[in-house]
Write a structure and sequence with these properties.
Low-confidence stretches: none
CATH superfamily: Ribosomal protein L33
Helix content: under 10%
Number of strands: 4
Largest sheet: 4 strands, antiparallel
CATH topology: Rubrerythrin, domain 2
CATH class: Mainly Beta
């Protein structure tokens, strides 16, 4: 009796400040977090304030495509 689609999906959050400043992804890297969200409760893209070790401060991390 399992449902066809799972409500909970895994998403990747990426620092928006590092991406906006044009940090070279190969050399320095960009801060990324992996988390889960409920598709039914949060249909839009997820944005959370998380600590970015590259910027050394709390910044907004937005959901990206896999």
């Amino acid at each position: 009796m399992a449902k066809g689609k799972d409500a909970r999906v895994t998403v990747i959050l990426e620092c928006t400040r590092c991406v906006r400043n044009g940090v070279n992804k190969e050399s320095m890297g960009i801060s990324r977090y992996i988390t889960q969200k409920n598709r039914h409760n949060t249909p839009s893209r997820l944005e959370l304030r998380k600590f970015c070790p590259r910027c050394y401060k709390h910044t907004i991390h937005g959901e990206i495509k896999k």
